[in-house]
């Protein structure tokens, strides 16, 4: 009987010891996190991690989340646009070259492309940063930004901004009336190179 009672006491003591070990470890880590982040002030919704660095929300960067990511890309860009898929095979692999401008919007997670497809009616095509990776974006075809002009429509698009700030690549799917007035769907790849960089 005493042996059974001793086993219960030992088991209880081990459980209590384990509990306090977990609590102590957790508190030590929490206090360490509080110490390394004590003098770190992250801006614009960023938060400090346990290596005393700011983790920034999409659209912001630098050591304190004070710089808008897209600000580095506001410029004029030379575009080489190549048709890589089409309903009209005679246009496959056709290149077009023109200039676009990337402009700011009122939010840090969006930007405008002007003169898209060398079309002056497409001066405010909205691009939205990816929710996980600020260097990736997609064309906003849901918002009422007048995605249809005459007989040309942007169906979808996405792209990636090079972190060296000198190139942007993108793929777009468009629908338009061709010379025979039939609707044609094209997939085009864009290589954008910054002017005067």
In short:
By secondary structure, the protein is of the alpha+beta class.
What is the strand tally? 13
What is the level-2 CATH architecture name of the largest domain? Beta Barrel
For the biggest sheet, the summary is: 8 strands, antiparallel, barrel
Mean pLDDT, to the nearest integer, reads 81
Radius of gyration: 27 Å
The backbone outline, from C-alpha atoms, is elongated
Name of the CATH first level of the largest domain: Mainly Beta
The share of residues in helices is 10-25%
Low-confidence segments, given as residue ranges, are 22-33
Please count the helical segments.
1
Q: Write down the secondary-structure element order.
A: HEEEEEEEEEEEEE
Q: What is the count of structural domains?
A: 2
Fold and architecture overview:
By secondary structure, this protein is of the alpha+beta class. The chain has two domains: 2-67, Laminin; 74-194, Lipocalin (Beta Barrel), CATH 2.40.128. 18% of the residues lie in helices and 40% in strands. It is built from one helix and 13 strands, in the order αβββββββββββββ. The protein has one helix spanning 2-36, and strands at 47-48, 54-55, 60-61, 67-68, 75-86, 95-104, 110-114, 125-129, 136-139, 148-149, 152-161, 167-177, 183-194. The strands form three sheets. The chain has an eight-stranded antiparallel β-barrel. Strand 8 (125-129) and strand 9 form a beta hairpin. The longest helix is centred in the first third of the chain and has 35 residues, at 2-36.
